[in-house]
């Protein structure tokens, strides 16, 4: 299910000496027992066992070294099951930087003669590896479906990150099996309607604001960013009647981008990387009734800098499957089509005139009738990872009824749905 890319792993000097010592021990035994063929066979096996035992002891006693074999170029295979938006992203992934234990090594290789010294506060740019104010960020790999772009990043600190960042180990009652960091970014494309001027912060367009993954050690975080191409396309263009519109559904969009080309450049400009500490301060806020209340707000540790990337993306459309339904119930509620990629699945809602999307929920269950997990921030984009989805069951539910009565119970969802359909791929 995952691709092995371990052929070019650099062997540390310390491990190399352990292996050589084991080999020398095997040679000594071979000379001593050269006339006893049967005993020689067992001696060589013992020598081989000794090599692996010594290597194992060495790696166990040096967990930070073991954790980094390999790293850059292999992040997807390492963390793709340790994020909320899971997938076999290492299959057919585009690898930008590989065969390095750490990003700093990759950065040194790309620098002239590998001798450039980074001064405090200095920014270094070298393609997909960039350093600013003590943090090195590497865009290691990418995998792009027609619905989303997945980016594998390594974030390395010259100093230790605060222990509070590693909540999977240091926070009592922490539920997720992954850690995360927040990002302040601007993202855009080399596509008219999605260029930088169209996606500046003042336009309200959403850019990646978090990354999920794991801390390899106290100074190294590896993770995956999910970019919803669907959301970016939906928010492209500009509103022609913003002042008159009462709700989002009333807005008339013009100059919208309907589809991305198969090859495009995605620009990701990161200016802040941060996470919450397990320390709190009291702040004043207002409740729903307008009354002032005191709440506990987590303190944050920020790393500001400049990490700007121009990422060449090739969209993989081979796994895309679309089934057209165009079916509704007697009230005009239904599904027009269902699209599945290698990583996610979604259904397009049909509603009667005047109805609002936010009043309904589209639920997708796998072939066994179990509801799929959401893939990313859009609750109605679902993950196909590890599930049987050759056949799926689609339900359209009233939002209020779903939240109050149906949520979490597949049988109640099937019985209470306003519309239902089975789809075979």
Mean pLDDT level: 82
Query: Can you summarize the main beta sheet?
Result: 10 strands, antiparallel
Overall geometry: globular
Number of strands: 19
| Uncertain runs | 1-68, 106-123
Q: What structural category arises from helix and sheet content?
A: alpha+beta
- Give the oligomeric state: single chain
Helix share, percent: 10-25%
Number of helices: 9
Distance between the termini: 21 Å
Order of helices and strands: HHHHEHEEEEHEEEHEEEEEEEEEEHHE
Our estimate of the beta-strand percent is 35-45%
CA radius of gyration is 26 Å
Describe this structure in words.
With 425 residues, this protein is α+β, with helices and mostly antiparallel strands. Helix content is 21%, strand content 36%. The protein contains nine helices and 19 strands. The protein has helices at residues 13-32, 37-61, 63-67, 75-79, 103-110, 167-170, 229-234, 399-406, 410-416; strands spanning 94-95, 123-126, 129-132, 135-144, 148-157, 179-189, 210-217, 220-228, 238-239, 253-254, 263-286, 292-314, 321-328, 334-340, 344-350, 360-365, 382-383, 391-398, 419-424. Strands 1, 2, 3, 4, 5, 6, 7, 8, 11 and 12 form a ten-stranded antiparallel sheet that branches. The protein starts with 12 loop residues before the first helix and ends with a strand. The model is unreliable at 1-68 and 106-123 (pLDDT under 50).
Question: In brief, what are we looking at here?
Answer:
The chain is α+β, with helices and mostly antiparallel strands.
């Amino acid at each position: 299910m995952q691709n092995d890319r371990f052929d070019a792993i650099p062997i540390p000097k310390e491990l190399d000496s352990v292996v050589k010592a084991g080999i020398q021990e095997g040679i000594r035994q071979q000379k001593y027992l050269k006339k006893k063929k049967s005993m020689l066979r067992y001696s060589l096996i013992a020598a081989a066992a000794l090599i692996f035992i010594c290597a194992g002891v060495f790696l166990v006693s040096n967990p930070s070294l073991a954790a980094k074999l390999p790293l850059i170029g292999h992040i997807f295979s390492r963390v793709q099951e340790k994020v909320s938006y899971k997938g076999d992203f290492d299959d057919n992934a585009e690898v930008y930087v590989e065969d390095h234990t750490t990003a700093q090594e990759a950065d040194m290789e790309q620098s002239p003669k590998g001798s450039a010294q980074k001064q405090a506060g200095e920014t270094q740019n070298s393609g997909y590896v960039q350093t600013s104010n003590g943090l090195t960020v590497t865009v290691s790999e990418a995998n792009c479906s027609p619905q989303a772009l997945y980016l594998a990043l390594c974030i390395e600190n010259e100093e230790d990150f605060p222990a509070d960042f590693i909540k999977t180990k240091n926070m009592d009652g922490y539920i997720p099996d992954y850690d995360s960091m927040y990002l302040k970014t601007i993202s855009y494309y080399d596509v008219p309607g999605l260029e930088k001027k169209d996606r500046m912060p003042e336009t309200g367009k959403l850019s990646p604001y978090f990354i999920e993954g794991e801390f390899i050690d106290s100074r190294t975080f590896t993770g995956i960013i999910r970019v919803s191409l669907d959301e970016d396309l939906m928010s492209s263009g500009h509103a022609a009647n913003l002042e008159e519109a009462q709700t989002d559904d009333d807005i008339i969009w013009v100059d919208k981008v309907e589809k991305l080309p198969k090859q495009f450049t995605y620009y990701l400009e990161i200016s802040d990387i941060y996470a919450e500490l397990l320390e709190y301060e009291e702040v004043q806020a207002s409740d729903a009734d307008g009354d002032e209340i005191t709440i506990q707000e987590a303190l944050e540790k920020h790393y500001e800098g400049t990490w700007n990337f121009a990422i060449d993306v090739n969209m993989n459309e081979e796994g895309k499957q679309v089934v057209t339904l165009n079916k509704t119930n007697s009230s005009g509620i239904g599904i027009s089509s269902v699209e599945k990629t290698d990583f996610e699945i979604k259904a397009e809602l049909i509603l009667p005139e005047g109805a609002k999307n936010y009043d309904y929920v589209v639920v997708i269950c796998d072939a066994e009738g179990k509801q799929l997990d959401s893939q990313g921030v859009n609750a109605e984009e679902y993950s196909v990872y590890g599930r049987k989805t050759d056949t799926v069951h689609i339900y359209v539910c009233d939002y209020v009824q779903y939240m109050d009565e149906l949520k979490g119970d597949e049988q109640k969802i099937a019985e209470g749905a306003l519309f239902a359909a089975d789809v075979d791929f």
